[in-house]
Specification:
Elements (H helix, E strand, L loop, with lengths): L8 E5 L4 H12 L3 E6 L2 H13 L3 E6 L5 H15 L4 E4 L14 H29 L2 E6 L12 H21 L4 E8 L5 H6 L2 H10 L8 H12 L10 E4 L9
Parallel strand pairs: 1-2, 1-4, 2-3, 4-5, 5-6, 6-7
Helix pairs in contact: 1-2, 1-8, 3-4, 4-5
The protein binds nicotinamide-adenine-dinucleotide.
Nicotinamide-adenine-dinucleotide binds next to α1, β2 and α6.
């Protein structure tokens, strides 16, 4: 089978670990050149090196998704190395759950800056390059909480709802330039980050609520992200794909 993302150049934020890493590796396997943007230099370099070792093309770009200048500079670096960016995955997030009254200004600010403004900086950084290339595809990593209520997750769910809105409106605004924008809402997924904060008991509770009775894997999200970036999804834009084992809409 021919590779589904040959000739594409992808920028993935938060690509050093978890879902972002799985997407970087899947995009590279499907033929895309990948820019791994991460706050942490070492994991980003490790992902890029693993891709290169497997015969793919990748570059680590250390940077903060919350900083407009960093995201613009990453897009420019990628263009110089591989050509115009045609795929963007806005995946980076800073998250703290907890009662709202206990969340300080800094924490709330960081959640908005990384999780929401990061998406906007990503859009602004790659749009001119995508137009130059004749089109592109953007995948935002949202969450089921974008459409559901979440105790101790007011900020998280509000940021993800904003991401979902920016997905729909982005699709409307950029569609005429052949740029599609979609989102993925991952169900509970055992990533490096999530494993650090969720207890074994917590995973078990989540597993029991998932209709297909298993937890998500980063590769589940990567498969969906490949599909949404590929030609197979060429008539899909403004949508949010729930990759969640059915948990979001399971009433009982
Ligand atoms: N894991 C889940 O169960 C789950 C469920 C729903 C949604 N999500 C969403 O999926 C995305 C990825 O989550 P994950 O569980 O893979 O996370 P993770 O913690 O495993 O990995 C996140 C990566 O992003 C990087 N990062 C953090 N802040 C950054 C910044 N400001 N700039 C650049 N890089 C930054 C980290 O260094 C890390 O490499 C997030 O948007 C998260 O909200 C995850």
């Amino acid at each position: 089978m021919s590779k589904r993302l040959s000739g594409k150049v992808a920028l993935v934020t938060g690509g050093g670990m978890g879902i972002g890493r799985a997407i970087c590796e899947a995009y590279a396997r499907e033929g895309a050149a990948v820019g791994v943007l991460d706050l942490k230099e070492e994991p980003a370099e490790e992902v890029a090196q693993a891709i290169r070792n497997a015969g793919g093309r990748a570059l680590a770009v250390a940077g903060n998704a919350a900083k407009r200048a960093d995201v613009f500079s990453a897009a420019e670096t990628l263009k110089a190395e591989f050509g115009p960016v045609t795929l963007l995955v806005n995946n980076a997030m800073f998250n703290r759950y907890g009662p709202l009254e206990e969340q300080d200004e800094k924490t709330i600010g960081l959640m908005i800056d990384v999780g929401f403004k990061g998406v906007i900086w990503g859009y602004q950084a790659v749009l001119p390059q995508m137009r130059e290339a004749g089109g592109g595809a953007i995948v935002n990593i949202a969450s089921p909480s974008a459409v559901l209520a979440m105790k101790d997750g007011i900020m998280y769910s509000a940021v993800k709802a904003a991401v979902a809105a920016a997905t729909r409106s982005g699709a409307a605004e950029f569609g005429p330039d052949n740029i599609r924008v979609n989102a993925i809402a991952p169900g509970p997924t055992q990533t490096d980050g999530a494993l650090r904060v969720v207890t074994e008991e917590g995973w078990e509770r989540r597993r029991e609520r998932v209709p297909i009775r298993r937890l998500g894997k980063p590769s589940d999200m990567a498969d969906a992200a490949v599909f949404l970036a590929s030609e197979e999804a060429s008539f899909i834009t403004g949508d949010m794909l729930f990759v969640d084992g059915g948990i979001t809409y399971a009433f009982s």
